[in-house]
Amino acid sequence: MAKIVPMASSASSSSLYLSSLRPFSSSLSSCFRFSSATTSSRLGCVSLASYNPSRRLTLFHLGAAIPQSQLFGVKESKSLRAEGNTIEAATAGNMAQASPAVTKENVLEWVKNDKRRMLHVVYRVGDLDKTIKFYTECLGMKLLRKRDIPEERYTNAFLGYGPEDSHFVVELTYNYGIDKYDIGAGFGHFGIAVEDVAKTVDLVKAKGGKVTREPGPVKGGSTVIAFIEDPDGYKFELLERGPTPEPLCQVMLRVGDLDRSIKFYEKAYGMELLRKRDNPEYKYTIAMMGYGPEDKNAVLELTYNYGVTEYDKGNGYAQIAIGTDDVYKTAEAIKLCGGQITREPGPLPGINTKITACLDPDGWKSVFVDNIDFFKELE
After folding, report:
1. Briefly, what is this protein's role (predicted)?
2. Rounded Cα–Cα distance for residues 280 and 29 (Å)
3. Is residue 2 part of a domain?
4. How far apart are CA 316 and CA 194, in angstroms?
């Protein structure tokens, strides 16, 4: 994955080793109703000069705002590197003070009982308004909130099928002046459960959307599916299901060693292997991982293509955010299971919400957020 550093703030020691902190803006669009069942960035600095603690913030959106200098190969400034080193040192100090002593046995046992949920998935788009229109009119999502950060030159929007405290949602990021991203070969698709795939496909076509696979049963099975693309080329698999509390139901990523990934996500992330299916005729194997059954929860679909051990991840897809009861123990478990910590666990300066960020063995990024802090910020 291309290393991406968000634009540095010029604002002094208040800068965070994060890509963004976003005060809440309550903007809700009308949702187009249809017969539906209801993707290794480095972290960068952002100013707290405009921080308002009385307003709701997005605390765990890491690595989505990209300066053009990084996209076009221009070296970061010395001041950015100096700020980054300073913040990293401070963060390490907080970690040393806050993290309790743990053993391998008790932390891996704790992971099994941790209360975890997939919160949202983050990726970058070239035309935010166009993408919002497509998601609301064609896929029936709601615009939950939208926030512009002109000093950092990006805008983000959250969309989904219900409130963020109970639903998996998408976080879209638009970086000023950047209208196209490389999605790469590693990201696969998002999954949307709908009651009538053919009807949804007709709607997508009527709105000018692109259909890449017409409705029909999945190969080797009976589930009716179709594939479409959003305006940026991100693929969505439409799956025909009955009513479900979680229509945004899948994120598919490709991995180079499926057994290694399953073991990692089970032990480090506390996910359950819900099912595994080999397709020798088409030379791939999939594994569904998650925190509950597929018909009621968003899941991670890992795909292994025979003989392919590494993928280009591009710079479009960013990460998944996951809730946890303890970011310190989570980080310890990730380290014990071979994951790489990219942001040591601890509270964010000035806000005190605790997070940690990491990479899995294939370099896919995740951010873990303290559950109590997360719900406090949603109040």
Report:
1. Catalyzes the conversion of hemimercaptal, formed from methylglyoxal and glutathione, to S-lactoylglutathione.
2. 45
3. no
4. 26
The strand pairing partners of 211, in sequence order, are 228
Task: List the catalytic residues.
Answer: 237
In whole angstroms, give the CA distance from residue 379 to residue 370. Answer: 15
CATH of the domain at 277: 3.10.180.10
Binding residues: 171, 189, 237
DSSP string, 209-222: -EEEEEEEEPTTS-
Q: CB neighbours (10 Å) of residue 104?
A: 12
Instruction: Take residue 219 and report the two structure tokens written for it.
Output: 């190969």
Q: Within a domain: residue 18?
A: yes
pLDDT tens digits, 213-253: 999 998 877 899 999 999 999 999 999 999 999 999 999 99
Task: Flag whether 6 is in a domain.
Answer: no
Segment 311-328, tens digit of pLDDT: 999 999 999 999 999 999
- In which band, very low, low, confident or very high, does the pLDDT at 105 lie, cut at 50, 70 and 90? confident
- Domain span at residue 182 reads 12-378
* pLDDT tens-place string over residues 271-280: 999 999 999 9
Q: DSSP labels for 291-304?
A: SS-TTTS-EEEEEE
Is 5 part of a structural domain of the chain?
no
Q: Residues forming the annotated binding site for Zn(2+)? A: 171, 189, 237
The Cα angle at residue 182 between residues 178 and 188, in degrees rounded to 5: 130
Please give the pLDDT value at position 219: 80
